[in-house]
Amino acid sequence: MTVYLDIVASGVLTGLVYGLMALGLSVIFGVVRVVNFAHGELTVAAMYMAWVMAGSLGVDPILTLPLIAAALFAIGYALQRHLVEPFIGRPEHEQFMLLLAVSIIVLNGLLLVFGPDARHVAVDYAYDSFELGPMLLDTVRVYAAAAAMVLALGLYLFFRFTDLGTAIRACADNLLGAQVVGLDVRRLYALTFGLGCALVGASGTLMVLMRDATPILAVQLTLLAFIVVIIGGLGSMAGALVGGVLIGVSEALAGFLLMPSLKSLFSYGLLILVLLLRPEGLMGRRA
Amino acid sequence: MTARNLLLGLLAVLIAAPAVIGAYPLAVLILVLHYAYLGIAWNVMMGFAGLLSLGHALYVGLGAYVAAALYASFGLPALLGAIPAAIVATLAGLGIGALGFRFRVNGVYFALLTIAFAEFTRILFDHMGWTGGSSGFFLPVEHGQLNPIALRGPPVLFYYVALVMTAGAFVLARSLMRSRLGYAWLAIREDPDSAAASGVDVFRARMAAVAVSSALTSLGGVFYAFYYNNMYPEQIFSMARSIEIILAPIIGGLGTLFGPVLGSFVLTLLGEGTTGLLEHFGWAAPGAKQVIYGLALLVIVMVQPAGLWPWLAKRLRIGRDG
Which of B43, B46, B104, B108 to mutate to test binding with chain A, by most A CBs within 10 Å of its CB? Predict the structure, then answer.
């Protein structure tokens, strides 16, 4: 029976990192109203950054996290400013194709630079574990999940208590009103896109502790982020984390009870169900 | 110049081409025609009816597996096997469409739904023993065979089959576009609510678009199976394949007749050119071709979102015919 406890616990910890990644997608969609189809690709790019730094400098990915998050923030900011901004207000499918193009370029650029092989980051504590009552928790997952929780909390405080965070929320709630009171919406959109990508950078760095980096992971992660966001619900930050945990646990259980290769079958099945049962898309708000 | 003359000229050149070109250019032209065909098929859904499908690899894969399995097990010739292949793919398409439309899954969410079904099926086939699972399914090849009904023969046979398929799909798309159904699709694409208010049966018209598109796409899959003689779920059902299918029509021009054909020419030549150039310098770079495709898509979406064909047609003074 304890084996189930271990699996559920490991699923919860992994799920928190999924949740952090999905939070990035949720923030971008919630404010800028653009579906970032390159989400998984950017996550994998962050994983490779962590791998390069761990390999060449021998630095623990958790320590390079702020650096990678900052790099992704810059990428996201530039992406919004130079590519996405002209597409605000254009038909949904054109925005989608723009980000599809970005995802194709990032994915295959990674393939071109790093090749198709899986890249593994080794840390000293890779095989350590904590004992918690009858449960055994992987040290790696505990650290990653703790970091994800801290970042999510920081994001919550940012949106709740800072002027900038309030301004960004204003753009999401009432765009016209935000413009009327003189907010620089274009800058705020770019900051939001950057912020969403910084979350991607952070979650990618944490994810590389648990999974090897490989270009083909990108598509899976993009879809995973969508699944989590759609299940967890937009606008609710806790929702993304809860959705992440739900997916993390169900994947862990499916991987244990069925075949590991079948676990994504489960996620896609879940995505189909959720899409059908939530007809208005993310949390009943019309996209 | 009229669209008609341009079309007939292009057709004449393509019919004569195998007489003068070598094996490699012929293989490239087969690819061009194959993706032009699939592009026309996809365009019926997205370009005509405004339904964004990112899971067309599903219909390619189903068509390929059904026809190949029937040939390998019962010796059913490809041209006959194409019928059950198309039926299976159309039923799958109608199933997805019915669910999506009844539950009002629109726009990008519909695209996600199609991806989810294609990926779901990919993993199913990966674990399905009797079609070889993830290690693939292969068709027996005998050299020196020529049997057009079974699609067994040299590359030049496949070239003409691809040409006939593309020309046929083009003519079909053209007549659909000008039919009552075609105008219904156009109305739905522009504004589904207004279309419904004007008495268009939106659900049925959308289902018709899915049926036409998935059936045509599955025939492309039958062609794929017999041309390449091998199929792996990981490749044939992959998201990358679905994306490859949609690039030509987007770049050439959504909702136009010539768009997918022009887009396929431009993209395939660009892709093959890049790969050839890199290999010439001794760099076999996986992903290079796709980076070029991505850049081409980026440039088109940013600069000419209506696609290359409308722009070119204006330069050539061709009317709205294309």
Answer: B108
Q: What's the pLDDT tens digit per position in B198-254?
A: 999 999 999 999 999 999 999 999 999 999 999 999 999 998 899 999 999 999 999
B285 in contact with chain A, both atoms CB, cutoff 8 A: yes
How far is residue B32's CA from residue B30's CA, in Å, rounded to a whole number?
A: 5
B304 lies within 8 A of chain A by CB: no
Question: Has residue B184 been placed in a domain?
Answer: yes
Q: Which domains are assigned to chain A?
A: 2-284 (1.10.3470)
- B290 touching chain A per CB within 8 A: yes
Separation in Å, CA of A280 to nearest CA in chain B:
7
Domain count of the fold of chain B: 1
CB pair distance less than 8 Å for B291 and A277: no
**How far is the alpha carbon of B163 from chain A, nearest alpha carbon, in Å?**
29
Q: Which residues pair with A236 in a beta bridge?
A: none
Q: Which two tokens stand for residue B65?
A: 């597996």
Could you list the residue range(s) of the whole structural domain that residue B154 is in? 22-235
Give CA separation, B114 vs B118, B210, B247, in Å. 6, 11, 17
pLDDT score for A162: 93
B113 touches chain A (CB under 8 A): yes
Residue with tokens 């887009």: B263
Provide the ipTM: 0.88
Distance CA B175, CA B257 (A): 10
Residue B257 within any structural domain of the chain: no
Dump pLDDT digits (tens) for B76-123: 999 999 999 999 999 999 999 999 999 888 888 899 899 999 999 999
